[in-house]
Specification:
The chain is of the alpha/beta class. It has helices spanning 22-30, 44-47, 50-60, 77-89, 101-113, 121-124, 186-204, 212-234, 239-251, 266-277, 283-298, 303-312, 322-339, 356-363, 378-387, and strands spanning 11-14, 35-40, 64-68, 94-99, 136-140, 152-157, 160-165, 173-176. Helix 7 packs antiparallel against helix 8 (212-234), helix 7 packs parallel to helix 9 (239-251) and helix 12 (303-312) packs across helix 13 (322-339). The protein starts with 10 loop residues before the first strand and ends with a helix.
Length: 389
């Protein structure tokens, strides 16, 4: 296990009817009468009244606010630029994101860009390191990305989908009301469940040894996600199941499951190239295609770890070799994705004609390699994409 430092200053406000508290929480951070940029997506938060409730709470706290809607899945740098311009012109002191991961990531990128003299895209190209950002708060409406407690942000721009991590954008408060998830479309339910599980897997598959404590926490969380994911797939208004998923999804990405160990992120990197190639590909559903293929490719390099996942997470009985146990675990994962109604191949997500050679080259363009569990070069990634056909 490696040395580490961990600090998570996000205040988690969880449960029914907590939206009334967001105004005072924003006031405590931004100050009396401050101007707040309220970032949101499409019409769902308007139709279901969540946005109105958030704005009512801001008004009751004596805060001013500017609505900034229209954020789409796989959020764009152009939308971020628009938000930065509005925030600067109105002397915005803090940002409130009301939505899922795309909305929260857009809010974070705006928060980075407002105090920065250059182009905020510099951070994603690793040309500059963030030093400061406006405070960000999040009202979660889709449990999936975990951005409401994380130091990470992912944005699409110039044909790439790039992410960075910096403590200055970790939200100071995250509000989670499981009732907000009752009206999610089936596609978003399955994508969210797969995404939050993947966030844990990206940390669980590590080359670091002697990580028993975190392993046990991660394995329990993944089992809980699968169990409750299947429940809400059939019963979308099950409050208790959504409570477990809301909590698991938020902790899946806040750094807890990577304490003292190296993270991987190869599956996310490969999926990001797919949804950058076509931003209509839902991230979580892309991961359902990528992850089993990645596991199949890397198992020969570290079959023991994949076998541990197979037994402790997927419930597979140990077989005569770690390789066979791992293989059974990968098939069990595919079966779970199928039960969730997720796609299994590139064709299923409309990517059967993608140029996998170009995709693989782009995946390693900035870091030079992808992943740490098994470091991957472009030729490895191309072979993994080929397994997805």
């Amino acid at each position: 296990m490696n040395n580490f430092e961990y600090s998570n200053p996000t205040k988690l406000v969880f449960g029914k009817g907590q939206i009334s508290k967001i105004g005072q929480l924003m006031k405590d951070k931004a100050g009396e009468g401050a101007e707040i940029l309220v970032v949101y997506g499409g019409g769902s938060v308007v139709k279901n009244g969540i946005l109105a409730d958030a704005e009512k709470s801001l008004t009751e706290a004596g805060l001013k606010f500017i609505p900034f809607g229209g954020v789409h899945p796989n959020p764009s740098i152009e939308k971020v630029y628009e938000g930065i311009d509005i925030a600067r012109k109105n002397n915005v002191k803090a940002i409130l994101a009301v939505g899922g991961g795309s909305v929260i990531d857009t809010a974070k990128a705006i928060a980075l860009g407002v105090p920065y003299d250059g182009d905020v895209w510099d951070f994603f190209l690793q040309k500059a390191t963030p030093k400061t950002a406006l405070p960000v708060a999040a009202v979660l409406t889709i449990p999936a990305a975990g951005s409401e407690q994380s130091i990470r942000v992912v944005i699409n721009g110039n044909g790439r989908k790039l992410g960075i991590g910096t403590p200055v954008i970790r939200p100071f408060v995250a509000l989670i009301d499981p009732e907000y998830f009752f009206t999610l479309p089936q596609n978003q339910i399955r994508a969210g469940v797969i995404d939050m599980m993947s966030h844990i897997m990206e940390r669980y598959f590590t080359p670091t040894k002697n990580t028993d404590f975190v392993d046990g926490q991660a394995e329990a969380a993944m089992r809980s996600i699968m169990k409750n994911g299947l429940i809400v797939e059939k019963d979308p208004k099950n409050y208790d199941a959504w409570s477990q998923l809301g909590l698991a999804g938020s902790f899946a990405h806040n750094g807890y499951y990577s304490l003292g160990q190296v993270e991987d992120w190869a599956s996310h990197g490969m999926e990001h190239e797919l949804s950058a190639w076509n931003d209509h590909i839902t991230h979580g559903l892309g991961l359902a295609v990528v992850t089993p293929a990645w596991l199949e490719y890397v198992t020969p390099k570290n079959p023991e770890r994949v076998a541990q996942f197979a037994v402790n997470v997927m419930g597979v009985k140990p077989q005569e070799t770690p390789e066979k146990t791992a293989e059974a675990g990968i098939e069990a994962l595919r079966k779970f994705y199928k039960e969730m109604g997720a796609p299994a191949t590139l064709k299923d997500i409309g990517a059967e004609n993608v140029d996998i050679h170009k995709l693989a080259e782009k995946a390693v363009m900035i870091p030079g390699k992808l992943g740490n569990f098994v470091p991957l070069k472009a030729e490895d990634i191309e072979k993994i994409y080929a397994l997805m056909r």
